[in-house]
Amino acid sequence: MTTTSDWQPSACILCECNCGIVVQLEDRRIAKIRGDKAHPASQGYTCNKALRLDHYQNNRNRLTAPLRRREDGSYEEIDWDTAISEIAAGFARIRDEHGGDKIFYYGGGGQGNHLGGAYSGAFLKAIGSRYRSNALAQEKTGEFWVDSQLYGGHTRGEFEHAEVSVFIGKNPWMSQSFPRARVVLNEIAKDPARSMIVIDPVITDTAKLADFHLRVRPGTDAWCLAALAAVLVQEHLCDDEFLAAHVTGVDAVRKVLAGVDVPGFAQRCGVDEALIRAAARRIAAAGSVSVFEDLGIQQAPNSTLCSYLNKLLWILTGNFAKQGAQHLHSSFAPLFSAGGVGRTPVTGAPIISGLVPSNVVPDEILTDHPDRLRAMIVESSNPAHSVADSARVRAAMQALDLLVVIDVAMTETARLAHYVLPAASQFEKPEATFFNLEFPHNTFQLRHPLLDPLPGTLPEPEIWARLVRALGVVSEADLHPLRVAARDGLEAYAVAFLTAVSGNPALGRVLPFVLYETLGPALPEGLAGAAALWGLAQKTAMAYPDAVRRAGHADGTALFRAILQNRSGVTFTEHEYADDFALITHADKKIALEIPELLAETEVLAQARPTLTTPDFPLVLSAGERRAYTANDILRDPSWRKRDVDGALRMSVQDAATAGVVAGDRVRITTATGSAEACVEVSDVMQSGHIALPNGFGVDYIDDTGQAVTPGVAPNELTASHWRDAYAGTPWHKHVPARVERVAAR
Ligand SMILES: Nc1nc2c(c(=O)[nH]1)N[C@H]1C(S)=C(S)[C@@H](COP(=O)(O)OP(=O)(O)OC[C@H]3O[C@@H](n4cnc5c(=O)[nH]c(N)nc54)[C@H](O)[C@@H]3O)O[C@H]1N2
Ligand SMILES: Nc1nc2c(c(=O)[nH]1)N[C@H]1C(S)=C(S)[C@@H](COP(=O)(O)OP(=O)(O)OC[C@H]3O[C@@H](n4cnc5c(=O)[nH]c(N)nc54)[C@H](O)[C@@H]3O)O[C@H]1N2
Ligand code: SF4
Ligand SMILES: [Mo]
């Protein structure tokens, strides 16, 4: 007999919005899913994808036992104790022979799960690991480098209230990324007093709703953005009062922008000069402007420069610290660590916000350099599929002395590992994300487990705790007083914690472990993994005391209690608009507009050539576009898709004619790195010379008949590691020179 559960709150894990959902379970199946009206950010909203989450929870590729690779490359199941002791001993050996800094950590959370990764730090510190990376180092680090110089934090738009919304290389209709995206986009489109500006070579579903579509040629955004900013300066459209009061370094910026040849730049990017001027004037005239830049510029040529030029648009017009404009926001646990730019040990590549560029990881391994990386732990990420040049990433991973992968499924990366550890799914443990990026109200949701862990799997906090225990760095005597205090309640725990940590620096190094071991057991049943949130709640309350109090939480302990109790999520900060200035990290609380390197780059645009294609590779391939049925590599079971099951290559009518293909034909796509076959969709949304493949395809899966299937193209079989930004090392996935040939006769 099937048992049907009550409706229970949780969240969708398929994109960073993490919309609240309520679900009904039938035994272990997520049978019914609806938007959760009680969720403070999503308010009942979901997109089409949330309803397909059971394909993640229940599928044939779930791992159910720790695996160890045999000599012949096959895997054998081993028990957890064996796995943990061999893995801990293996890393300890590498530390002793080569130094703990040769142990690299990649991942730590996808679109729905950051809580497990929060515990990794204890083991990594204990073993002496220093270098790490994740997917943010192939998209956001260039923007972060710019942000850190301008004001020292991450900014977000407030699209719900913006008079003008600007989307640059961003297609929120498909990719979402801010609360209730489609509702907000429709509201903007319907309201004659509000405008939408979209900069995208493709007529996306978002562009279709836009008032101004600046349809740039791929890879030419720098010219378009520089022209927009130049119009603001040259036509005297800047907010001089705001600039005088809150911004330094403005003169240097004005000087460079005054010299920009707007008609020439318009021609370079292929956008009508009059349209550029009209869009710039609309931005200047608006009471509020919000801007979202995403992969269309962050994974294309001049990406760091484009991030800078984009930010000039809203800073020059004073669109900061007021409703509907751009904001620095609070964070519950920062996704980006602050600090200057370090360098990687082998290639000297920039380490921005603590992250090694994903693209240089193979170079840090495949070398005789004495400081090369020798071992790696991958948690909740699939770099053998998601990082540029998959063949090279595979070779690098095969060259490691030890590779351990923690995942729910047997992935392309797991298949290269010496050990694979099976994690409980995101619905089988307490889970949360740190994509808490909103202002003035910022929200956080602790999802309670809906199910017990699948037999054989463990939640990451327990996996990391077992690894730390195996190293023997903390004694039971150290932990005992804290365990006792935790039983007496959170107030007693806070006092005992401060005493213990100030008296014993060794505990301070492994804090998440200490919290899990001591506070974890005292938390309500099944929530031990939430223990690390206690520390984060205390920090949040100290960082934004007034905003946390305004949101209804007297202190960190009260905030932690609210998080444990409100299963649909809590608002943890409520800011006033003027707080934006206080969130600037510069001592003078002003935006520092001048970034000399990037101003020099702007001047160079007058000479630089905008094309990277060649006669051999005449087309620009965007490798990895977000569509209605893509969700990174989270859903491996292809039957979740209702459309576009093969992940078609989109191409324009002209390019299809040139290649002699029609819709449904199979083609071979070739780049300097590799080649792959895809099925064609001829589409008038594409401009001539630009083709696009979706992301999230080309992952293998064992279907219900036991057959291995791999629909679509793995985009990174076609991309190259050196094809990256000079400042941040972020890849140019959206701009890969390619050619297309018909494969078989019709
Ligand atoms: N459905 C779905 N939604 C997702 C995800 C998913 O896998 N599927 N993934 C999530 C993640 S991890 C992320 S980072 C976000 C990404 O979200 P987006 O950045 O919105 O996603 P993309 O479709 O990759 O790229 C955005 C746009 O860039 C355009 N583009 C290509 N080349 C250029 C160019 O040279 N200039 C400009 N201006 N635009 C260009 C493309 O036409 C596309 O419309 O989406 C999130 N949401
Ligand atoms: N060519 C090209 N490459 C791209 C992109 C592109 O547009 N084009 N986009 C880039 C971007 S923006 C991103 S964000 C990255 C994403 O790339 P990755 O960082 O590799 O992340 P995902 O693809 O989301 O993979 C998440 C992994 O987590 C696993 N997982 C799911 N739940 C759990 C869990 O509870 N515990 C554990 N331990 N594992 C779990 C899944 O099985 C999956 O293997 O891809 C990047 N790569
Ligand atoms: S995919 Fe993103 S926008 Fe869609 S329901 Fe899930 S979290 Fe919300
Ligand atoms: Mo991403």
Automatic annotation (TrEMBL):
It comes from Mycolicibacterium bacteremicum (Mycobacterium bacteremicum). Gene3D superfamilies: 2.40.40.20, 3.40.50.740, ADC-like domains, Dimethylsulfoxide Reductase, domain 2. The keyword Protease does not apply. InterPro entries: Asp_de-COase-like_dom_sf, MoPterin_dinucl-bd_dom, Mopterin_OxRdtase, Mopterin_OxRdtase_4Fe-4S_dom, Prok_molybdopt-oxidoreductase. The keyword 4Fe-4S applies. GO terms for cellular component: membrane. It comes from the Bacteria. This is Molybdopterin oxidoreductase. GO terms for molecular function: 4 iron, 4 sulfur cluster binding; metal ion binding; molybdopterin cofactor binding; oxidoreductase activity. Residues 5-61 form the 4Fe-4S Mo/W bis-MGD-type domain. Keywords: 4Fe-4S, Iron, Iron-sulfur, Metal-binding, Oxidoreductase. PANTHER family: NADPH-FE(3+) OXIDOREDUCTASE SUBUNIT ALPHA (PTHR43105:SF9), RESPIRATORY NITRATE REDUCTASE (PTHR43105). SUPFAM superfamilies: ADC-like, Formate dehydrogenase/DMSO reductase, domains 1-3. The lineage of its organism: Bacteria, Bacillati, Actinomycetota, Actinomycetes, Mycobacteriales.
